[in-house]
Amino acid sequence: xxxxxxxxxxxxxxxxxxxxxxxxxxxxxxxxxxxxxxxxxxxxxxxxxxxxxxxxxxxxxxxxxxxxxxxxxxxxxxxxxxxxxxxxxxxxxxxxxxxxxxxxxxxxxxxxxxxxxxxxxxxxxxxxxxxxxxxxxxxxxxxxxxxxxxxxxxxxxxxxxxxxxxxxxxxxxxxxxxxxxxxxxxxxxxxxxxxxxxxxxxxxxxxxxxxxxxxxxxxxxxxxxxxxxxxxxxxxxxxxxxxxxxxxxxxxxxxxxxxxxxxxxxxxxxxxxxxxxxxxxxxxxxxxxxxxxxxxxxxxxxxxxxxxxxxxxxxxxxxxxxxxxxxxxxxxxxxxxxxxxxxxxxxxxxxxxxxxxxxxxxxxxxxxxxxxxxxxxxxxxxxxxxxxxxxxxxxxxxxxxxxxxxxxxxxxxxxxxxxxxxxxxxxxxxxxxxxxxxxxxxxxxxxxxxxxxxxxxxxxxxxxxxxxxxxxxxxxxxxxxxxxxxxx
Length: 488
Ligand code: NAP
Hints:
The protein is α/β, with parallel strands linked by helices. The termini are far apart. Helix 2 (72-88) crosses helix 6 (189-202), helix 4 runs parallel beside helix 5 (164-175) and helix 9 packs across helix 10. The chain has 15 helices and 25 strands. The model has no long low-confidence stretch (mean pLDDT 97). It is 38% helix and 23% strand. The chain has helices spanning 50-69, 72-88, 90-101, 105-126, 164-175, 189-202, 216-224, 238-247, 273-285, 305-317, 337-352, 388-391, 407-415, 430-439, 472-477; strands at 5-6, 17-19, 22-24, 30-34, 41-46, 132-135, 142-149, 152-156, 179-183, 209-211, 229-235, 254-258, 263-267, 295-301, 356-359, 363-364, 374-375, 378-381, 398-404, 419-420, 422-426, 444-447, 462-463, 466-467, 480-487. The chain has 2 domains: 5-259 and 466-487, Aldehyde Dehydrogenase, Chain A, domain 1 (3-Layer(aba) Sandwich), CATH 3.40.605.10; 263-454, Aldehyde Dehydrogenase, Chain A, domain 2, CATH 3.40.309.10. The chain binds NADP nicotinamide-adenine-dinucleotide phosphate (NAP).
């Protein structure tokens, strides 16, 4: 994206970084946060760098001892209070989220509730961290295995879920006694700062949550060259993930990497087409197709291919595109001009290679005064593996459909890419459902279902989609060190 820096922004709309419970400036330029639907300035945040990143680690490091020593109940109560505060301030938070990110207000409200669910879940999970006591090889020895917090953990998050990506990392980390430093995405730092402010209001001690904004490379580099940072949890692109892996080598900083995906959907001949269409619709077009688990390619058994495609076409044609704050809108703008360029390239490429556009396929101007950043929800028939849309994450409201004849062919197509985040299958046969779930080489599989990310489940990918899991007890384990104590 093109970063816009201002030296003299509107002082009433500056959201400062939050370090050690205090709002801090970076003493230089400010990053302009724009409404992707109108290009209006929504606010400004400091353009911080290594100094701010280090100050945040200083604060988190100083806060670690007392926070770790606090009881799990104390930490759980604060997490629950923050969840409650987020529910109480849903309208303000959702409004900020829609303004900076673009998704429809109804989706933004759901994201706030979803984000709060990680706080509630982790609050309980943090109270149940347990060790083990075991006999050893020699009869006079015993082994005690304890689980302890890591220390200061860093989080770097993307723009597509400005609230949920933050709580999904911070909640489990804090619940088990770690302190945190966070850098939200350039496009959507205001929601992150608003949540951190609420954390201060509900009583989180200074230094437990620190949020810095600014130069991603300098901040990331600073944290990975600081031995006090014991873990970095990153959600974003595979490209940046790779860079962080190299930089983490210095101190062998632990990493969790939630990276890009390219989700396939397999619709078998015995599928309930109504369920399949409704599920694919909600997963594909929420957030204008800008989610890492959204379906990109649908493989449909040839015998039900036309039935599926025509139902999808009618459902897509009913979607309303517009600004996220306008009433009745289902699909908002794309995040920036790079996103629009990528979607346009994928559409041009698909057409040139023979895809048939059943609906959409072009940019739209929902009403005067809006930016040229809206894409009509699109259905491509005749997707082939050579097309860019079938190989690269489109990150837009474009869905390609391809017919298949055999289960083996469908599985081979689904597994063909180097990504392994989410995959979906629709079938009424239990034996087939389980066989397919086992065969799909992905970290997340939805069977007759596309709502796959919840506070309870394990979220994460295989192959180029990353390492580690978020959510459930697995998300908590990512923030614990195992220590084995042998007793003579
Ligand atoms: P991105 O460019 O990788 O950015 C993600 C975060 O990394 C942002 O905070 C960004 O900061 C930061 N960053 C950029 N360059 C960096 C560097 N050199 N060092 C340290 N941090 C750096 O990804 P994106 O375009 O925002 O997000 C879309 C991608 O995220 C997609 O591939 C999507 O699939 C993936 N994603 C994955 C999941 C998942 O759970 N698997 C969830 C959501 C999204 P700036 O914003 O300041 O550049």
